[in-house]
Amino acid sequence: MTETNFGEKTRVLVVGGTGSLGRRIVSACLAEGHETYVLQRPEIGVDLEKVQLLLSFKRLGAHLVEGSFSDHQSLVSAVKQVDVVVSAMSGVHFRTHNIPVQLKLVEAIKEAGNVKRFLPSEFGMDPSRMGHAMPPGSETFEQKMEVRNAIEAAGIPHTYLVGACFAAYFGGNLSQMGTLVPPKKRVDIYGDGNVKVIFVDEDDMAKYTAKTLNDPRTMNKTVYVRPADNILTHLELVQIWEKLTGKVLEKTYVSAHDFLADIEDKEIAHQAGLGHFYHIYYEGCLTDHEVGDDEEASKLYPEVKYTRMDEYLKIFV
C-alpha cells in the first residue's frame, strides 16, 4: 500500500519508539504490514526497560537501526534505509521535552534525499492555530512550528497528524490535573463544562499514524483526529463515568479566573499544563474550527474501530 512501489511494503523508521506513543506506533506499523525500523540511540545506556522493549520489537520483526542526535552521519545512514520517518519525540514539559531535537532529524532527511514522507511529533493541538497560546506552554507550539517551517523550507514531503487529547492524560482521570485515575468523590468542572473536547486512545492515534504515513491523499496535509463519538464536553465525559459507576460525583465549577489565579506561583511544567488545559477546556481550541471529511482520520480510515470513552473508562470501574 505504498504510493510508489505498487504494493511493496513501505519501510518506516520510528524515532522515539520506546516512548508512550512511540511504542504503540511501532506495534501499529508492524500490524499494518510496514517494514518497520526503530532508531536505537546509544544514549539509552543501561535503561533496562528501553533495551528490553527494543528487543521485544525485534522479536516481532522490527529492525533496530543505530543512530544518535549527536552524530549527524549516523542519522543520515539511518534514514537512508527507509521511505518514511515518523517522530514520536516527547513534547510535554513534565517529561523529556525534545521537540527541537527534531531539527537534527530534518537536516539528516534533507541530506539523505530519499525520504518520501516525514511525520514530525505533533498529535495534539494544531500548533499553527496556537499563536495566541500562553507562556510557558506556548513554547511547545513555537517549537513545533519551527520544525514545520524547517520541513517545508527543505521541501520534505510531510503529514501533520493533530487534534486530540490522549485518553491516558485527559480521559481516565476525567480531565483532573495531577492524577491519571478517576476521582472517587468530587470533580472539578472547567467553566460551565460545555466546551467540546476531543479524546483519543493512544493505540488509535498510533493506528491512524500507520494508516496515513503512505496514503497519497494525506501528502503535505494536516490530518485531524476527530472520532465523532469521542467529541465530548467535560460534563459529558464525567456523566459517562457516573453512568458506569452508578455514583454521582460532587462537582465544583471552576471559573477561568479562578483556574488561572495563582499560575505564576507554580513550577514551569505546571504553568505549561495549566495553559494547555485552559486553551482546551475554556477556549475550545480543538473544536473551534471546521474540518473536512478528507482531512479527518476517522473518516479517511473507517476500518479503524476506535475506542469510545465509555469503553475506555470501563477498566477503571
TrEMBL record:
Database matches in CDD domains: PCBER_SDR_a
Keyword Thylakoid in record: no
Domain NmrA-like as annotated: residue spans: 9-313
Residue intervals passing through the bilayer: none
Alphabetically ordered keywords of this record: NADP, Oxidoreductase
The keyword NADP appears for this protein: yes
Stated family: Belongs to the NmrA-type oxidoreductase family. Isoflavone reductase subfamily.
Protein name per Swiss-Prot or TrEMBL: Pinoresinol reductase 2-like isoform X2
